[in-house]
Structure prediction request, 960 residues.
Amino acid sequence: MPRLIALVPIVTLLAMLGPVVAGLWGTVLPAFGHLPVAGFDGPSLDALRMLATTPGIGAAARISVTTGLLATGISVLIVVLITGGWSGTPAFQVLERVLSPLLAVPHAAAAFGLAFLIAPSGWIVRLVSPGLTGWDRPPDVLILNDPYGLAMTAGLIIKEVPFLLLMTIAALGQVQQRRSLLVAQALGYGRLTGWLKAVFPRVYAQIRLPVYVVLAYSMSVVDVAVILGPTTPPPLSVLIVKWMGDPDLGMRLLAAAGALLQLALVVAALSVWRIGEFIVARIGLSWVIRGGRGRLDGAIRPLGLGAGALTAALIFAGLGGLLVWSFAGFWSFPNALPDSFSLRTWMRHGPDTGGAFGETFIVAMTATGLALMLVLGCLEAEHRSGRKITSRGLWLLYLPLLVPQTTFLPGLQTLLLGLGADVGRGPVIAAHLVFVLPYVFLSLGDPYRAWDGRNGVTAAALGASPNRVFWQVRLPMLTRPVLVAIAVGLSVSVGQYLPTLLIGGGRVSTLTTEAVALASGGDRRAIAVYGLAQTAAALVPFALALIIPALVWRNRRGLHA
Amino acid sequence: MKHLALIAALVAPLPALANPDPADWDAVMAEAAGQTVYWNAWGGSTTTNDFIAWVGERVAEDYRVTLEHVKLTDTADAVTRVLSEKQAGVDNDGAIDMIWINGANFAAMKDADLLFGPFAEQLPNWAVVDSNGKTVQTDFTVPVEGFEAPWAMAQVVFIHDTADLADPLGSMTAILDWSKANPGRFTYPQPPDFLGATFLKQALVDLIDDQAPLYAPATDENYAKVTAPLWDYLDALTPTLWRQGRAYPATGPAQLQLIADGEIDLAISFSPGEATAAIANQQLPDTVRTFVLDKGTIGNASFVAIPYNSGSVAGAMIVANFLMSPEAQARAQDPAVLGYGTVLDMAALTDTDRALFDTLDLGIATLSPAELGSVVAEPHPSWMTRITDDWMARYGTAQ
Prediction:
């Protein structure tokens, strides 16, 4: 048994990084013209040359870079303003409560909601028309699918702000912000300025990896890009997926070359970001030394709260829009509410969502169950061997989230195709595991390590074996964090679009792939039903993770933390 | 001589040996019972999806065939899968048993020997198909030769909201003039979407006087000259389009939402009954009507084909035959369901079967067969491929 548990970290690393490494390999070979399945024997530079001459490739690559950097930069800025200006206040607590469930809302559902809001014929314009605007027809302005990718950037920001905010809150616990802030304020610094100068550098060091994840993700996202992104041409990630689906297997070479370009762009953008960190640090240092106390704090602070509130409001209003559309009869412009309401959309599509819901559930449960076993095994191995996870280990954990999905998933699919194993649920679950594992690990790691070891010592003194301590003392006491980790895993799996689409070969239909497939048809009612079903699938586990411990431990007050 | 005949019979190209003979229909029915048929069909229209679900219920009832609809965003995906299965050596029980197909995809599959058949003309219901009056034996000029079975007729119509655009426009030039006078009120699905590509072909056939070259493969010599009027037309039209042509709806149904939102007044459709069906579904305002061009509009047939490596050939033939039955055809033509044109010959039907069609109310926005006017045949697929590629280079990447 002790030897078995020592193997768990190795198995975990293999499950997490194996597909990534294999996928990269499967991408590099065809990118250099080697794909025996389709009758291509490399190496050659033809695929890269073909990529270079593809019409619109420059614009596609540019959108990928600009949306990624812009979405990440603005998200970090909003999070810094909120945390710096408001952490520790009641307003901050409210915002935290409101934003944390939004983390689970799938990207696609949030993007649909936003599209319903901001389109020229969307809810916002309807609310003020024709009263304020005089419009009885929607204005012919390009808001959705704009060539600069601004709508897409906004769609990413509303989802990344909750993520980064929660990561920042987790980091705050380790930097003694209260003490630093007290000292700074005693020296006459404004709240925001004091936080930025005394606390932010230490917090940023803690959230650096999540920020990189956001950057890599934003640059290579597919579902949000399909819903909100430009189409003439689309971002590089969408082009890659399109080429992957081309009947001509030769196009796989082009897709692989594109995937390699995507990787290069992400590496370049990460480097630019890193250089930016140095520059900001340099400027920040001289700002600290100048000793300004922050006269503008009062003016800037409300911005942070406003931006945070706006983020939450956009997601909630978007989901509200989905709800209204799902019950809408005919709904003409500029009416703010449907001309009539009906249940027919739910009667029509409700039963279909059932099948997709089942598939989503099976994939998510299996991937999360496997992830939980591996993570618990790793943490217990770490605990028993007394070796803490190093910063290098942490990098490994983040690696699958840093390599763009559009780089290694196409390669993985091509490899599986060569093996004749490219269909079905099994490979999809394995692909989901790559993304579920790190999040479950990150979610469970801190509470697991924070468990008071004296409970274990007491149990051992009473004669319990390490295994018995684990099963009968530690796990029951950690019910709540374990359930939260399960909820995190489920919501990550529910939201996965690309792994399901590419690895499932279109035969594994989850709520997310069905919803995104409907995006092209523009039937807002059907989209609304699937978007809501998808949101429910991701949110319900979180609700259960809160309710179950309260019920199970209703007579154990100490476990209600 | 007897020997020769025997040898000839033995070496004659046969469909894979295990496959049933469509001429022996009882054997087909016996073998089909209990089979599951994966029908890969475009899943972007909720009304079509409902119809396919109904077909599934009916064939389960009558023949114990289970029908699974694999919803595609692009039929090319199914072609990819069969092709990659062949390359991987999956020659039996492939993932796909039936594909909703026509045009370039059919030509590609037939060309690469990826289809089972011939079977279509041996199906019992072929007897009532209108093979003389309707283009069911050629598909975009490519001879069908029984490798796919027809199940719906489509013809281009234009959907217009009479609240904003009262009168039909008789030609592509009239559409351009109207769009110039009403900028931002017209758009079409973004090619390579098939309906967007159809719009380009419709424009081309309406703009040129000599259509003969379109019915042979496009050549490097004639392509530029023949298509020049199209590009001139699009150069003039694009700046007047919705969003000045900087964004396009992804598919045909997405245009309907734009009309409902009041964003556009005119859209192309490949289904004469689609507008009526959409009004019934509360997806379009009831002020919507349809029109065709004076010189006629492009029409074609939708088919189903069976991949060579299907493991449920008998079941797939049952479904293909059911799709050509008067019951299924009448339901498909009902505008409250699909509003697709029938492939059947009314004169060949029994009185009771004909009554199914006669009692149909085609609906307020559907033109009668007489009003639909003359059908222009689909050009050779090579034109569509080249025009689509050219469009993407010219307009699909212009920012």
Remarks:
- Residues 57-342 of chain A form a domain with the MetI-like fold fold (CATH 1.10.3720.10).
- The longest helix of chain A spans residues 344-385.
- Chain A touches chain B through 58 residues (CB under 8 Å).
- Chain A has two domains: 1-24+345-561, 57-342.
